[in-house]
Amino acid sequence: MLDINNIYKTFNPGTVNEKHALNGVNLHLDEGDFVTVIGSNGAGKSTALNAIAGVWPVDSGTIVIDGQDVTNLPEHKRAKYLGRVFQDPMTGTAATMQIQENLALAKRRGASRTLRRGITKKEQEEYRELLKTLDLGLEDRMTAKVGLLSGGQRQALTLLMATLQKPKLLLLDEHTAALDPKTAEKVLNTTDAIINEHHLTAFMVTHNMKDAIAHGNRLIMMNEGHIIFDVAGEEKKNLTMKDLLDKFAEISGSSIQSDKVLLA
Hints:
- This protein is α/β, with parallel strands linked by helices.
- It has one domain: P-loop containing nucleotide triphosphate hydrolases (Rossmann fold, 3-Layer(aba) Sandwich), CATH 3.40.50.300.
- Helices cover 35% and strands 23% of the residues.
- The protein has ten helices and ten strands.
- The strands form two sheets. A six-stranded mixed β-sheet has the order 6-7-8-3-9-10, sandwiched between helices. Strands 2-1-4-5 form a four-stranded antiparallel β-sheet, with helices on one face.
- Strand 9 (218-223) and strand 10 form a beta hairpin.
- Helix 3 packs parallel to helix 5 and helix 5 runs parallel beside helix 6.
- The longest helix has 18 residues, at 181-198.
């Protein structure tokens, strides 16, 4: 479902602020893989995600989604393959529009626009049933403005919107980092349920080691623009936080004990 082949990305080349963010990254995801991506600050996690999303072009290498080479496609043309949930709960929804209107926008992504009625009764029932699965009471507030929702409610709604058309690849960019622990757990459980129900392929960047171990079927650790550790299956299930810290020190030759990745 995703093939990243030898991609490089350097920011501010030729200046004192030159930063080699990605250094020959290779990654293959099969359909249904749920990969969590961990690493210290500046390791290249979000850079890799944004490269997949087309936020910026890579310097070299290729990115292939479901057999389609999207390397040279701009962000808006790549969107038809992707669902995305951002770190900021305020991003990804239209705050001044109703909950049902936001869902309708997501439902119509990539479709031709017509003069028919905005939201049909059939669609309203569909959205109500979808919102019930979140167990947040939003099915009784479908005409409420999204800007009135809490951060956790908005992230849960964004998850529904991002997966309504069953994307080829779901990108989760530290989507619980801005939430309190209890709300973050709720959103992560919702994430698991949606991914499992629709058999989605997902790429989740996180600073939280515990979450990286607990979720998904595969874990990747990055450092200085490289993938330095890739584990799946039973080996991943048996991982502990100490294992990850020890593995990082062993492979990278340094420690992350004072890094945000541990504090999280």
